[in-house]
Amino acid sequence: MSVTTASPSMTSNTAPQVIHPLWVRVTHWINAVAMVVMIMSGWQIYNASPLFPFVFPREITLGGWLAGALLWHFAAMWLLVINGIVYVTLGVLTGRFRRKFLPISPHAVVADVRAALTFRLSHDDLSIYNAVQKLLYLGVILAGFVVVLSGLAIWKPVQLQMLTAIFGGYDAARYVHFFAMAGIVGFLIIHVVLALLVPKTLRSMITGR
Amino acid sequence: MRRKRIPGVDPKLLIRDAAKLRPDFARRSFLRGMASLGTLTFLTGCDVVDGFSAEKVLRKMSELNDGAQAWLFDPGQLAPEYPDSAITRPFPFNAYYPEEDAPEVDARDFKLEVGGLVDSKNSWTLDELYALPQEKQITRHICVEGWSAIGSWTGVRLSEFLRRVGADTRARYVWFQCAEGYSNTIDMATALHPQTQLSFRFDNEILPRKYGFPMKCRMPTKLGFKNPKHVVAVHVTNSDLGGYWENQGYNWHSGL
């Protein structure tokens, strides 16, 4: 196993290194469920008044009609936000974000993208993120903030009108919400494809090792 | 339990009501799509969705959201107002029926019925209503579908009207009945909000039929469907009498 052989100091009876502590794995999978519900119900809500000349096929939406989709969306938002707060708080307090995501430099990102595209990017040590991973993970956390804040701006354009104004008003906030969703979906596709290409990453997000 | 039900939706009402938002769609198939999607996505079997009832959970969450929104509602927070130039022209007609089916209310026969927890249950003629102190607001109407439009409404503050009929403003709700059979119930806090208005005019003209003649209750702090048109009765009450869309699963509070 590459993880154990990568650490010569480890003896055979030592448990392999924990890559993802329990709180990361639990919040990751809760987030996965919440995200999928939010995205699929959000697509149904979008279809009631599309911003662009297309709608999402109903096979990939959740809720069946607008009222059903809104019920799902405004139920799952609690799961998404509470879980997100726990994740970000622990990420900052435990120093995991700093250790895993920083430092990150444009030079390293370019080098790692090049290595990835030529299939020379190493995955030997799953506990260390390459620059592309750092960028994507930081980016999706940022998109998460934007999607939640723009969602609040659309939901409460009177009570939270300062927030709505920051996004350029109610109508503009709808576009911000849409593009933040699109960014997250883009991340999700890359994330899932790469996890399937390197299955041990999927295993480590379940067992921690 | 093998009920095939739509989360948050009363199936009887669902079947009865014209499908405004999906006119071409057989509503019953919604649940089948729902159940299979729910199953595919994160649940383990059809029984889970049907029996354990995602519907019950979603309804509970919607009630919790009513509470959260009531808590978030600041009675002093005004909806933004806009200049004349911002008015959306033409202002969109929107209802669960086509424009030509909008109810025709005869101004001469019209009387606004007042009931419930009020001192004076006398009905009001249009002339009496028009004599009340009025103010104009240019505010954003936001539809539950997502689109918005800015309109100009003129009328009397609902709080002023409630004061004149001696309403018990400690009551929990105000209920509106409309000429076409539409109805809805709002919370007293919103009823007393300074921008909640019994509107008699749109864009300085007597409220046209398509926008709710003879009167609409305009509240820029709630989604459009909570703003009843063609109002014929106002009741002050402590029981939630629901509403046309609310009973079908749309969130009750729907505050903005």
Q: Could you give the topology of this structure?
A:
The complex is a heterodimer of chains A (209) and B (256).
Chain A: H1 2-5, H2 22-48, H3 66-93, H4 96-101, H5 106-117, H6 131-155, H7 161-166, H8 170-197, H9 199-207
Helix pairs in contact in A: 2-3, 6-8, 8-9
Chain B: H1 11-16, H2 28-41, H3 46-72, E1 113-116, H4 126-130, E2 135-142, E3 148-157, H5 158-164, E4 173-178, E5 183-187, H6 188-191, E6 197-202, E7 205-206, E8 216-218, E9 231-237
Parallel strand pairs in B: 1-9
Antiparallel strand pairs in B: 2-3, 3-6, 4-5, 4-9, 6-7, 6-8
Write structural notes for this entry:
The complex is a heterodimer of chains A (209) and B (256). Chain A has a single domain (17-207), classed as Fumarate Reductase Cytochrome B subunit (Up-down Bundle), CATH 1.20.950. Chain A has nine helices and no strands. Chain A has helices at residues 2-5, 22-48, 66-93, 96-101, 106-117, 131-155, 161-166, 170-197, 199-207. The longest helix of chain A is centred in the middle third of the chain and has 28 residues, at 66-93. Chain B is 25% helix and 20% strand. Chain B folds into two domains: 11-72, no CATH class; 84-248, Sulfite Oxidase, Chain A, domain 2 (Alpha-Beta Complex). Chain B has 256 residues and is an alpha+beta fold. In chain B, helix 2 crosses helix 3 (46-72). In chain B, strands 2, 3, 6, 7 and 8 form a five-stranded antiparallel sheet that branches. A four-stranded mixed sheet of chain B has the order 1-9-4-5. The radius of gyration of chain B is 20 Å and the shape is globular.
